[in-house]
Design a protein that fits this description.
Number of strands: 6
Largest sheet: 6 strands, mixed
Shape: flat
Radius of gyration: 28 Å
Distance between the termini: 35 Å
Structural class: alpha/beta
Strand content: 15-25%
Helix content: 40-55%
Number of domains: 3
Oligomer: single chain
Length: about 375
């Protein structure tokens, strides 16, 4: 595989909707306004980590930290309606952290720990070459002399009971923290949930990861990486689309797309879409041409099937093994049985119109003789 850096955000985005990954990470389309939800989540993370590392839990210290955290943002660059609304959101975040910080009884070893490692199956030894995984671990502490990954989550409601058990990021972060020394049976992890209800509260979800979990993580990363590097992106429509920033692109709402991402974003999307359509049209033409080159093309058209339906089975040709698919009477061309996939022959005839059946047979016959092939 070629070089690729995966992260928990990239993997979760692709697994949720490959098209969203393409729009966000391939085309790099970014909303003109920063999300208030993102800002507030980042701020609460920062305030909690500040309290735990500096041991300064007074309001003045938190307000200073909050101002520093949001120093680079202006209200008109966010989706807040006014400066007053943004300021009130900051105050609310400070209030919520003040309400719960005394309930967080841990001593961090490190915060915001950045790690990068190759992706390896810890059981079989298989690796993904230049595909690596990186992450920023919110908090690392120790439990029974063993380092533990803690990921801070903010939410408006109580999380599902199995959130920790199913967490991709906790598995990935535990892998990063322990790589390459996987000499234990269990690796501690935890979610520190800050529930932003009317009365804020803390909910811990604690668990462990095993070598089997890391092996499963490897398989997930392997499939995600292969799809990304092969350029396989598709829409995954569902209820989640209703709160996706990229919805205007998927439904063709040019006005909303321009308002949210700017004219440059919409123009880029349209340009890439047009280029993809041209490529797809060329691929269809090539498929039809390959059928037209085939010495047994007449067998197929006599059956009256659509060319594209037939050529879906005409991948991965091996000219040296070219032979007629016999016995079914329909001329179906499958892997390793159709000569028409020879790239050399395709290049010789592509773009020339008309291409007579006699010319095709002549070209193929010449190629067979020159390369000492046999049908």
């Amino acid at each position: 595989m070629d070089s690729l850096v995966l992260s928990k955000s990239r993997m979760k985005t692709f697994m949720g909707c490959p098209e969203k990954y393409r729009l966000g990470y391939v085309l790099e389309l970014r909303s003109l306004l920063t999300s208030s939800g993102l800002l507030e989540g980042t701020l609460i993370h920062e305030l909690v980590e500040t309290c735990l590392t500096t041991k300064k839990w007074d309001r003045d210290s938190l307000e200073i930290a909050a101002i520093d955290c949001w120093a680079g943002y202006k209200w008109y660059d966010t989706d807040y309606e006014s400066r007053k609304e943004m300021k009130q959101a900051m105050v609310t975040c400070v209030d919520q952290v003040m309400a719960v910080i005394n309930d967080i009884r841990i001593t961090p070893v490190e915060t915001e720990k950045h790690l990068l490692a190759p992706i390896v199956d810890v059981i079989t030894g298989e690796n993904l070459g230049d595909v690596v995984f990186q992450g920023f671990i919110d908090i690392v502490d120790q439990v029974n002399s063993r380092q533990r990954v803690i990921d801070i989550k903010t939410a408006r409601r109580t999380p599902d009971a199995n959130s920790e058990k199913l967490s991709l990021e906790l598995t990935g972060y535990a892998y990063l923290l322990n790589y390459p020394h996987f000499n234990k049976d269990q690796y501690p992890v935890a979610y520190l949930n800050l529930i932003r209800t009317k009365t804020p509260k803390v909910l811990w979800q604690k668990g462990f990861r095993t070598l089997e979990d890391f092996s499963a993580f490897f398989q997930t990363a392997k499939h995600v990486a292969a799809s990304i590097m092969d350029g396989r992106f598709w829409l995954n429509p569902g209820v989640h689309c209703n709160w996706c920033d990229y919805l205007p692109f998927c439904v063709g709402d040019a006005k909303e797309a321009v308002e949210s991402f700017g004219e440059e974003g919409w123009d880029l999307f349209q340009t890439v879409k047009a280029a993809q359509q041209q490529t797809e049209n060329k691929e269809v033409t090539m498929k039809k041409l390959k059928c037209g080159q085939c010495m047994y093309y007449q067998d197929c058209i006599d059956d009256g099937e659509d060319i594209r339906k037939r050529t879906n089975a005409c991948d991965d040709f091996e000219p040296a093994k070219a032979k007629k698919a016999g016995g079914n009477g329909k001329g179906i061309m499958a892997k390793n049985v159709c000569f028409s996939g020879c790239s050399a022959t395709v290049e010789q005839v592509f773009g020339k119109e008309p291409i007579s059946r006699a010319d095709v047979v002549s070209l193929i016959s010449a190629y067979i003789r020159e390369n000492d092939l046999a049908l």
